[in-house]
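Can anyone check this?
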Amino acid sequence: MAAVSDPQAAKTIQLTLKELMKTLKKCEGGRKVSETGLEVVNTQHKEVETEGVLSVASQGKLLKSYQQAVGEAEKEEEELRRALDKIYQIRTLRNEMRLAARASGNKENIRRAAHMKMLANSAQTIPLWVGQEGEQPPQLCGAVQADQNYVASTGDMVAALVKGPEDENWILAEVVTFSNSTGKYDVDDIDEEQKDRHTLSKRKVIPLPTMRANPETSPMALYEKGTTVMAIYPQTTCFYKGVIKDQPGSPSDDYEVLFEDPSYADGYSPPLAVAQRYIIQVVEKKKGK
């Protein structure tokens, strides 16, 4: 069953989409201007190389061209950031519509294969963090952990430690509410076949990344090779212990994880792809807990 849409929210989304299209056209125009500026700089460099001497006049021309190219690139960046803001607004509105539909009792029934695909798409489409020069990645960007006082919002994806038939297991869940008075979360098992709700203390809930880290610009926000982690085993909604074999090579790539598996001679599975969103730090159990 499809989610019931709030007419006002749907209208706002349509208006924001129109604004996004206008902004993207400006981005394209800015990109073309920037490319022209870079071509001018490259042409002047070739002229200097041909002459074999960097004259005062050539220095002045190059400096002016560089300053102009930088200014054009900054304008292009501003438009791109405006476009990203519009995309985030649309994502937020769509999520609010989904939560409102769920609160009204309109739950979607999705086949397992389709549900697994949706979870994979969700991980690939969370925002890529794009910071300013010298800016450090914020909490919940890639491997950057949330602050101790951080509280996940309704609808956020989390790892939740719940009681199983034999032992406690970390599962993928969605936040329903958080009570400031009790310090506990209500979370729903994301597995459509379970549909269980759990009330858990904060220490049994770990917020998942809300942004992807770019390996090219923010390598410090990635788990290092050889790090022991908890990661969702492909085609499941449960977290299992494993070791990072390789980091993502690009923003769209996944980690390669070796999962602990006694059925293999060396005790580990072959490398399996896991998205940034579905990896958390290993949480060691305390004695007596």
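Reply from J.R.: I decoded it. The CA atoms of residues 95 and 129 lie 19 Å apart.
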